[in-house]
Write a structure and sequence with these properties.
alpha+beta; Arc Repressor Mutant, subunit A; 22% helix
């Protein structure tokens, strides 16, 4: 239950905040005995901490807890960072604070120490009070959270059978047009990764020169560098989330960071 001293104050905050902004973040608390309650997350200062535990001095009191498996102060919620993100931090509890983000597995918040775990929209905090009953469930609700539908991470993909390079973002695949010299270079570097069980591997300067230009004695390490830089720039300019496609090992060569498909 929520501490009695705070009920009227919290209700007034909840009402006023909803009149101004109906999307104020809150915790939806579900108790093992079937009760439900909403707790608004109203941060008045940068140091606002909402404590959660078994004893009455906490802002959110988790009772009944006949086996005392919930710690006196079990965990706390706080807002940190200039973007207004909320975090949950375990307070050294005996039985742990667990968090489950939508589509993910349970994570032990204790493992993150004082850093805690950032809360995303509909994240579920689980605190177990008994081996025989359901846990306390605290669902973080923030309609404004831009991460509730995470943007897919882009990556580079090379199709060995088709000799084609793509940028992949979610379900979308964007082909990268290669010049003849770039194609020779990419083909060679991808093949070296393939021979290394798909793991990015070092391609040395002499081998790259041979693969791209054959026995041309006029070609130097700088020619490879220029070719690498132009392709990296083309990828970055059009897909700025993809960086470090080519990792430079000074005086040795380059590593091609790409996912291979067959």
């Amino acid at each position: 239950m929520i501490h009695n001293r705070s009920i009227i104050y919290l209700y007034s905050i909840w009402t006023v905040e909803n009149m101004i902004n109906p999307e104020v973040p809150f915790l939806k608390i579900q108790y093992p005995d079937g009760r439900e309650q909403n707790y608004p997350l109203v941060s008045k200062t940068e140091e606002t901490i909402i404590r959660i535990g078994r004893l009455d001095h906490n802002d959110i009191v988790l009772q009944p807890d006949p086996e005392e498996r919930v710690s006196r102060t079990h965990c706390y919620i706080l807002q940190k960072g200039n973007q207004g993100f909320w975090w949950v931090v375990d307070e050294g509890s005996a039985n742990g604070t667990w968090i489950r983000h939508p589509g993910g597995s349970d994570q032990d918040v204790r493992l993150q120490g004082d850093k805690g775990v950032r809360l995303h929209h509909e994240a579920l905090i689980l605190i177990y009070s008994s081996s025989e009953t359901l846990p306390f469930k605290l669902t973080f609700w923030d309609e404004k959270d831009s991460t509730k539908k995470p943007q897919p991470e882009s990556f580079l993909e090379y199709n060995l059978s088709q000799s084609k390079l793509f940028v992949v973002t979610g379900d979308n695949r964007y082909p990268i047009k290669l010049t003849p010299l770039q194609r020779k270079m990419v083909d060679y570097m991808a093949e070296q990764n393939h021979q290394n069980l798909g793991e990015p591997t070092l391609c040395k300067h002499p081998d790259l020169i041979q693969a791209i230009w054959g026995d041309d004695p006029t070609k130097l390490n700088g020619d490879v560098a220029n070719l690498i830089c132009r392709l990296q720039k083309e990828i970055t300019d059009n897909h700025n989330k993809i960086n470090n496609v080519f990792e430079t090992l000074r005086n040795e060569g380059y590593v091609f960071n790409v996912k291979l498909v067959y």
